[in-house]
Amino acid sequence: MTTATANRAVATTGHPERRVTFAFLATGFLALLIGALLGPLQALNYAGIDLYQHLPFLASYYQGLTLHGVLNALVFTTYMNAAILLYFPAREMKVPMNMPFVWATYGIMTGGLAIAGVAILANTSNVLYTFYPPLSGHWGFYLGLALVVVASLMVAFETLRMRAVFRRENPGQVTPIITYMAVMTQLMWILASVGIVVEVVVFLLPWSMGLIAGVDPALARTLFWWTGHPIVYYWLLPAYISWYGFMPKQAGGELVSDSLTRLAFLMFLMFSTPVGFHHQFTDPGISAGWKMVHSLLTMFVGIPSLITAFTVAASLEVGGKRAGGKGVFGWIGKLPWNNASFTAQVLAMIAFIFGGAGGIVNASFNLDPLVNDTAWIPGHFHLTVGTAVTLTFMGLAFWFVPHLTGRRLLSNRLALASAWTWFVGMMIFALGMHWQGLLAVPRRAQISAAPDWAYAGTEVPAAITGVSGVFLLVAVILFFTVLIGTITSGQRLLESQRPAIPFVDAKELRSVGVLKVLDMVWGWFLIAALLVAVAYLPTLIDMFINQVGIQPYRLW
Amino acid sequence: MDERQHNQIAKWERRWLALSGLMSLTFVILIAYNLATEGTHIAQRTSKAAPEQILAQDVFREPGVRQLAPGKIQVTTVAQAFVFQPADITVPVGADIEFYLAAADVIHGYQIERTNVNVELIPGEVARLNYTFDDPGVYRITCNEYCGIGHHNMLGTITVLPASQWNAPDAQRGASATDGPGVYAANCASCHGADGAGVRGAFPPVAQHAADLVVDEGRDYVVDLLLYGLQGAINVDGVAYNGVMPAWSQLSDEQLANVANHITIDWDEDGVLPEDFEPYDPSEFAEARGQQLSANDVYQRRNE
């Protein structure tokens, strides 16, 4: 390509990164659309109403549940992360992406999605998004998911490569704040993904192809949760990037502490992964001592979220006071509540306060048996992933999609309405599900088809859960009307009218020495890896030695 | 942001950090103390082996309730798709109950409502825990780990009686019914439906199909199917199924013969069975137990 044509390409498309970023974003939201449309059916199922029988393209409730979980929890989040963790560092550092590599990444991720999607739609893989063996899906299901994970690691590689370029070109400079958060998220994910990669590539894929006869379910579960808890932070941290990196600016404030922000992300790198046993408190094969260690480390990983609550709230307060807010609470009214992007994300934060509090219950070894695998758990993670993360991504989209596509947001008012309905719907859902869970109604069950005697006495919370489904259906319709309307028929914006990225001001660099230490990311990565080894290897080695292979079962 | 405002925020920031750390530490201490003083409900693995070997152990061969000593009860339960064996048990209030739990096929859950008994039943492992009921009443047991299409039907009860009303059984056997319809309702209906119609695409029908099998595959085939299960792709009345029928060898010969007669003779709507069809006799099941077939062997036979 000659220089002249290269220049013309930039002139017509602006930044070439926009198109690939939009591809990730749009595919992610498409997954959310399909997954979220099934959600209200699940909520109604928990109210005893079975609408699944009226869906000709789904064979069962459990097939729909598999689709819902895989698309929303695994696919939507992974695509959004690719968009966020590539685009913002590239623009912040002004380092270009390796475009062919990023498009190849998109191709691999989407190929994997297609393969896994066909396997699920063909009713061959109703194993839910945790796919515990010995229930066995079609090998295409595991292959597809493996490709999605491979692509997510390619995204991580690209984020790290761009930072390396920046450091080479700017010797002595500290990594800029958004990039630092993105890099720590990616390093955490590299360490976290080891578990699921080993589980799928070494065990489940060959097992589902008939190459090995048996898989040890306890070992597979443990490898799954090596990844399964930190994957929650892999979903959450890009939302935190928006909270720390963009929202103070949107509120007219600034980030009050650059170093504390970095410390929070460093703590996520340290403590996100060696905590997986808190998902396995009721597994008899793991010793109580190691479970207690993971319970302790899980309490530590609560601290960076508490730091986030303080720093983000203080940063918004600075904005509210600049706008004329007075007193302890007076600044709250001065925040830009009419801005749909801002409001959606504040509502996401409020939901996360309740989600975090419930999470401390789940992480407590002694309290967890009361709620483990009950409706409480989906009640919990619809506050964290379903609201804190998803509503943040929705709020982000309200300025990010106009920025990428050059189309004005279809309607700020509809966008606001979608955010509020989503928030209210999810809070009602969480109330119903937490309550049902305390009454020992199990999660992931076709309650609407269970015998009548089983859940007598749980009618009130069941009805609450059902009502939330109606709210959430309305929210989904409103949000996707705004999103699709913006993309297809939003008013075209001139290049100068596109919303700029609201990069936060964080000029208060108090101690460059501290920042330099925090910036030694690979050293911290090694320490994190060591901590994971200490927390996991004694149990895993024992499990590897004493494997009992179980044949695949297909029980649907 | 001016220096004064910044310093003020920094001061509160330090207090907040200290409070966060203190709170986490308090929680950890409370958790450790709580478990150290009353943690016997936390399940521990007592052995690990192939599920067939576990189910051959003495405690699991006849799962149910035993009185080991006055005030000391042992409960053994086998979980399999999609029933608990036994599903309904009765225990006395105040007794120290030792639970031994195992899964025969896939992972199941075992949660007793209004208690903190909650165990992951992983095939290949035996879980043990202790619990004492302080209040009489009926407690629902749920399988709370997704185990397949009949997961929501996998339920049980524990009836806790005042000690004076409770009679020590030799063992409250799994599926204590012995009549054909009773055995069917306790063990088969959660998949194949109360009326034997099955679930299209998931569980084949039993009504009429069982009689058809006697005619097409021979009467012994039904005996082997019940004793050893079946795994593989089959086609019934033009509908494809590809699931697993568990083995039911833990039922007694009498229970198996009665349920076989129920599904073949009672549900032979089309009258395909020959006039001189002899009802199944328990001795047929007793003899067939020696073959040591696998679910795949039964499947191969079907396709011959």
Written overview of the protein:
The complex is a heterodimer of chains A (556) and B (304). With 556 residues, chain A is mainly alpha-helical. Chain A has a single domain (16-545), classed as Cytochrome C Oxidase, Chain A, CATH 1.20.210.10. Helix content of chain A is 70%, strand content 0%. Chain A has helices spanning 3-13, 17-45, 61-93, 99-121, 139-169, 177-208, 217-228, 230-245, 247-250, 258-271, 288-322, 340-363, 368-371, 376-405, 412-438, 459-489, 512-518, 521-545. Chain A is globular, with a radius of gyration of 23 Å. Residues 1-13 of chain A have low confidence and may be disordered. By secondary structure, chain B is α+β, with helices and mostly antiparallel strands. Chain B has two domains: 44-165, Cupredoxins -  blue copper proteins (Immunoglobulin-like, Sandwich), CATH 2.60.40; 180-303, Orthogonal Bundle (Cytochrome Bc1 Complex, Chain D, domain 2), CATH 1.10.760.10. Chain B is 35% helix and 26% strand. Chain B has ten helices and 13 strands. In chain B, the strands form three sheets. In chain B, strands 1, 2, 3, 4, 6 and 9 form a six-stranded mixed beta sheet that branches. A five-stranded mixed beta sheet of chain B has the order 5-11-10-7-8, with no helix packed on it. In chain B, strands 12-13 form a two-stranded antiparallel ribbon. In chain B, strand 12 and strand 13 form a beta hairpin. The longest helix of chain B is centred in the N-terminal third of the chain and has 36 residues, at 3-38. At the A-B interface, helix 7, helix 11 and helix 13 of A face helix 1, strand 1, strand 7, strand 8 and strand 9 of B.
